[in-house]
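As described in the Methods, two query proteins were run sequentially through the folding procedure within a single session, without resetting any intermediate state between them. The first query and its resulting structure tokens are shown here.
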Amino acid sequence: MDLMKLATQLFMSQLGSSGSSLSSSLVSSALGNLIGDKDGKIELTDLLSLVQGGGLASLASSWLGDGKNESMSPSSVLDIFGKDKVGDFASQLNLDTDTAAGGLSGMIPDLLDQNSKGGSLLGNPMVQSAAKGILGKLFGR
């Protein structure tokens, strides 16, 4: 499954009834603006680095590992991305900032958890394929 599609579904499911009126294309666009690269695509390694750099390395480790996932607070989302960026994201979706931060605080751990195995993102077939492609280019294969 496409990472943006998965992130969109996870975010909308975190919102419950608050997200029932949102269109998936609108959510995808807003997520692309918030956590996407310059092309609006989600790069899991970039997202993981952002979370780890925000002082949440132990939380991120729990999401990557095969054990129980620790929860992320909405305030941590605001700390990592900044209240203004989360506010802009919320505004794009006609949500209040707290609701948007709450949805993101559930979506981010789930997204990383579902795309990792054994403590590493490399357990993900999409990431493995990309890594093989890069290594193949490096070694002329």
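Immediately afterward, the second query was submitted; its sequence and tokens are:
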Amino acid sequence: MDLRLIIGRLLLAIGLLLVAAAWLAPTTIRTQLYGTNLNLAWGIVLIASGSLFIFTARKS
């Protein structure tokens, strides 16, 4: 099994957990840092990175 596939799945799972945590958090926690929801932002970054890892593993 390709290592990129394992890393991609891990990043994808953590990203999905962060996005879920961002949606379930109360609004006071969401907007503490300059009105930015960091869990949502980093969740999207990790989902994109994990998808890229999985895509490159499947292409080779």
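Residues 16 and 50 are 10 Å apart (CA to CA). We note this only descriptively and draw no conclusion about the first query from it.
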